[in-house]
């Protein structure tokens, strides 16, 4: 066998040959776009990087997005924990079917969820028809803060329910039984046993819910006509105004806020899965 043929079968060359497609894919679809995104605002001046802080409309859009995401995350954690723990601790006929139905919204895209909210609270929705029949006024809420909150809650809740149900099933039941045998009330058990055991799950799940709400586009695109959120602001900048540098700057700001929350969850979470 010639030396060149022997080198071709060398494990190092085979490893490089296998890694080359993955490296090319990584460079083409992640590294190069990210580098382009990070450098694009500089073409319009360094001040473009701080547009989200210096322009009141962009700052308001970011504040709206953060406030909406925090509110949805907190509400989802409370409802998801209550439903998930109940389903994990109570055995009844149809429990698995109910859990499957509760997680069904995970299969719907954001546009469909927005359509559901329009069917409920839009101009031709059920609430508008009832309001017109009772008060002679068509009541709508789908296109503002309330519509976005309900839609975000709708697609966030299944994730929290599934996560808390799995975590509650894995909790140490002996700790709870020991607390009850010592006379602890149900509230005391929830505070001293459930909350510490579910704290890592709450932290990790909350970070994921916040990140999902911050970047939600399909639902916001359908409903955010009266309440500006940052994904729609970015979309308008590069589609309606061809302002790619500013859209890149806003994208970096959105990514930083989301990354900081995820980093904090990984940094302070005690759950090895969250790390």
What does this entry show, briefly?
The protein is mostly helical. Helix content is 76%, strand content 0%. The radius of gyration is 24 Å and the shape is globular.
Written description of the protein model:
This protein has helices at residues 3-8, 11-39, 51-54, 56-89, 95-102, 110-121, 126-135, 145-169, 173-181, 186-215, 218-223, 230-239, 244-268. By secondary structure, the chain is mainly α. It has 13 helices and no strands.
Protein structure class? mainly alpha
Number of E-state strands: 0
| Average of pLDDT | 87
How big is the Rg? 24 Å
Distance between the termini: 50 Å
The major beta sheet can be summarized as: none
Element-level helix/strand string: HHHHHHHHHHHHH
Number of contiguous helices: 13
Roughly what percent helix?
Answer: over 70%
Given as residue ranges, the uncertain stretches (5+ residues, pLDDT < 50) are 271-275
Strand content: under 5%
Q: Overall 3D geometry?
A: globular
What are the main properties of this structure?
275 residues; mainly alpha; 13 helices; 0% strand; disordered C terminus
Task: Explain the layout of strands and helices.
Layout: H1 3-8, H2 11-39, H3 51-54, H4 56-89, H5 95-102, H6 110-121, H7 126-135, H8 145-169, H9 173-181, H10 186-215, H11 218-223, H12 230-239, H13 244-268
Helix pairs in contact: 4-8, 4-10, 6-8, 8-10, 9-10, 10-13, 12-13
């Amino acid at each position: 066998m010639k030396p060149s043929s022997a080198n071709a079968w060398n494990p190092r060359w085979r490893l490089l040959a296998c890694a080359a497609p993955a490296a090319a894919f990584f460079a083409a679809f992640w590294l190069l776009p990210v580098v382009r995104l990070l450098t694009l605002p500089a073409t319009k001046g360094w001040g473009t990087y701080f547009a989200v802080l210096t322009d009141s409309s962009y700052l308001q859009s970011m504040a709206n997005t953060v406030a909406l995401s925090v509110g949805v995350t907190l509400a989802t954690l409370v409802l998801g924990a209550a439903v998930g723990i109940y389903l994990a601790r109570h055995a009844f006929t149809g429990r698995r079917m109910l859990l499957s139905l509760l997680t069904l919204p995970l299969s719907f895209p954001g546009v469909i969820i927005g359509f559901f909210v329009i069917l409920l609270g839009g101009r031709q929705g059920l609430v508008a028809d009832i309001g017109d029949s009772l008060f002679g006024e068509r009541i709508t809420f789908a296109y503002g803060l309330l519509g976005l909150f309900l839609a975000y809650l709708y697609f966030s809740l299944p994730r929290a329910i599934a996560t808390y149900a799995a975590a509650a099933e894995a909790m140490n039941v002996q700790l709870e039984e020991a607390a009850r045998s010592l006379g602890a009330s149900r509230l005391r058990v929830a505070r001293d046993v459930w909350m510490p055991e579910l704290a890592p799950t709450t932290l990790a799940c909350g970070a994921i819910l916040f990140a999902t709400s911050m970047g939600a586009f399909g639902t916001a695109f359908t409903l955010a006509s009266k309440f500006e959120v940052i994904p729609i602001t970015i979309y308008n900048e590069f589609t309606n105004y061809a302002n790619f540098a500013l859209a890149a700057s806003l994208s970096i700001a959105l990514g930083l806020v989301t990354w900081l929350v995820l980093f904090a969850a990984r940094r302070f979470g005690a759950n090895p899965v969250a790390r």
